[in-house]
Each structure stands twice: as C-alpha cells, then as structure tokens.
Design goal:
Length: 304
C-alpha cells in the first residue's frame, strides 16, 4: 500500500470507494484547443455550484505564459485550470511536470519534487520510450496514485490528455493518453482541429486511438478557428460531432483579472453550446440541470 503523504490534502493509499465521476478530453495534437475546453468546463461547473478538479497527468510548462505569479515553474503548468476551478495548487492535479531547458530536453518534477532530466520529442511531448525502466515505472505509479487520490477526494474530475492521442503516441509508452485514460475509465470527448491535425478524417483518428480510448469515445468537437476544410466524414460519423463557430474572447493583457474575464466568457459559451454540458448535469447532481444535447459550436478566437 502506498504511504499517505502529509503534504497533500488529498487522500492517498486508501481504496477508492464511491469514486468521483468525470470526463476525459483528448485531442488530435498540441494546440487543437483541448486545454481551453477543459478550462472552460471547469469554470462553467464552478459557476453553477459544482466542485470539479482537473487531472492532467503530465504537462510541459509554457514558459511564455506569464499570467501565473507562482515562482515555482513546475506549479505553472495548470495555472489556468486552477484559476477556473478556484483551487489552490496541489501536485496531484498535475503529478508529472516537465520544465523545458531546451527544445529537446527538460527537467522532470514528480508531484513537485525535482526528479530527473528527460527527453522531449515535441513542444508538448515527453519521450517516455527513452526513459529507463525504473523511472518509467516510478512515473506510472505516481500517475496512478494521484488519479486515485483525485477520484477519492473530489466530486467531479476532468482528465486532460497531452498532445496527439492517436496511435503514434498510444500504447504503454504514452502515460498521458493511455494509462490515465484507461485507469479513469471516463467517457472520452476528443477535440479535432482541421489544418493542424495529421488525420484526414474523424474515422482515421478514431481508428488510431488505443482500444480503450476508442471504446470510451462518445463525441468529437471540431474546433476550426482558421476556416480549414472540414473532415469529409462529419455528416456520417458514427458518433455525435459538433461543428464549430466563433466566440470572441477579450484580448489577454497578461493580468489575472483579465484572464478571469476570458475564462467566464469562454465558460458561458461552452456550457450553452457544447454537448458535454448535459453530460455533466446528468452525472453530477450538484450542477444545475441544462437542456438536452445541442450541436457543439466553439472555436477559440482572439479579439482584435
């Protein structure tokens, strides 16, 4: 049994009884919009009296995002998630964090403690396959333990994948998009962004998901802010598909106040128009009821 950590308000090392419900948001690549969907949903639920928590198994810190005043670089990766949910920093919400030191290398922190240098194979992708066996096993254990703690201590959990969740990164070497997805067992909604995805169609993306993620996939949101050609199989895809439209966000000035305004604008748009709003209402009785499913209509667009 894992030892209970005294520096965390969450429960560790205990059997998970009455585990919190939740949803998992995956995407077709970095920059597809999944993080903003998660942030918006956290804010929307919180504004309606719910108490959601984020769970992002692994993050690569964006050092250019200066809206967080936290001097600890490893605590900045889910700053927007925590602000939206009204939560203080807790390492279990984001147990593996990499602070880049170059384009190909970063320093790995496990639950806020510096652990080891790791290789990066993309702007938001840790090369787990290059890890030695002992470190990989340690990372696996930490993710499983933190997810269990969140599910035991929260009322609703939003799990966010990392980068491209397709087959190129699926399998045992992808802790963010396979281990966490399988362990949570939550319904999956994927964000597909035309023009920045390597997938020609929704069907191709679905076929390249890992088997567990594919079985849990319930809907796809097409986020198309740049007006690229839409997936050719949208009309006859086997699952619900949301066609995007625009919401203009106030321009970010780097301040916390302005960022909260942006979160609120985005949250209201997401809650009114995206399909998981009524999923959340059905799962979490603390959240006010909303109308039945409506087509998803969202793309993220900066104000001029």
């Amino acid at each position: 049994m894992l030892e209970t950590r005294n520096d965390s308000p969450l429960t560790h090392g205990q059997p998970v009884v009455n585990a919190a419900p939740g949803v998992t948001i995956l995407g077709t690549g970095s920059g597809c919009g999944k993080t903003w969907h998660v942030v918006a949903l956290l804010k929307a639920i919180s504004m309606r009296g719910g108490h959601p928590v984020p769970f992002k198994p692994i993050s690569v810190v964006d050092l250019d995002d200066l809206t967080s005043g936290d001097p600890r670089p490893w605590a900045r990766a889910i700053h927007h998630h925590l602000m939206a949910a009204g939560l203080p920093y807790e390492p279990d919400y984001n147990p593996l964090v990499v602070v880049p030191v170059s384009e190909s290398e970063g320093m790995l922190f496990l639950r806020g403690r510096e652990r080891s240098a790791v290789k990066l194979n993309g702007p938001d992708q840790v090369d787990f396959a290059a890890m030695d066996e002992a470190l990989f096993a340690e990372c696996t254990s930490v993710i499983e333990d933190s997810l269990s703690a969140c599910r035991a201590s929260a009322t609703f959990v939003l799990v966010e994948g990392s980068g491209d969740s397709g087959a190129a990164r699926q399998g045992p070497a992808d802790l963010a998009n396979s281990l966490a997805v399988d362990a949570a067992g939550y319904p999956v909604i994927s964000v597909f962004r035309p023009g920045s995805s390597r997938y020609a169609s929704l069907g191709e993306y679905r076929r390249q998901l890992g088997p567990e993620a594919a079985s849990l996939l319930k809907a796809v949101v097409v986020n198309n802010p740049s007006g690229h050609a839409l997936p050719p199989d949208m009309a006859d895809f086997a699952l619900p598909v949301g066609l995007s439209s625009s919401v203009e966000l106030p321009r970010s000035d780097g301040s916390v106040v302005q960022q909260r305004i942006r979160h609120e604008v985005l949250a209201e748009h997401v809650w009114r128009t995206l399909p998981w709003a009524s999923w959340v209402s059905a799962i979490d009785p603390q959240v006010n009821r909303t109308p039945d499913l409506v087509p998803a209509r969202l793309c993220l667009q900066e104000g001029n």
